[in-house]
Description:
Layout: E1 4-7, E2 10-13, E3 18-24, E4 33-39, E5 46-51, E6 58-60, E7 68-73, E8 78-83, E9 92-99, E10 113-114, E11 118-123
Parallel strand pairs: 2-11
Antiparallel strand pairs: 1-3, 3-8, 4-5, 4-9, 5-6, 7-8, 9-10, 9-11
Amino acid sequence: QVQLAESGGGLVQAGDSLRLSCGASRRLFSNNGMGWFRQVPGKDREFVAGISWNGGITNYSDSVKGRFTISRDNGRNMVWLQMENLKPEDTGVYYCAANRRATASTTVSGYQYWGQGTQVTVNS
Length: 124
């Protein structure tokens, strides 16, 4: 099992930056692909960014490409999502996720472990 805990969410203004952090509970974190997803009430959870086990491959949704950056440090069992130039449509609960296949998967079904989420609210 991999337990994940997100932090760093908050209330910001459009154009601001925010950095989300996700800590994993076990040493085998380095074998897992990691991802960030977000969800708003009444909508499906959507992919934001993914990173492969060694950071060699990253994927982003079109809506955040060029503004968000996913990174990881396997020695610290941490993954981050740096968010720049935030927009009101970036508002949602952001979830950290891990997959056993070590890939930068872009689908919800590609991940087996999920954190509890952290709220990001962007005011216009």
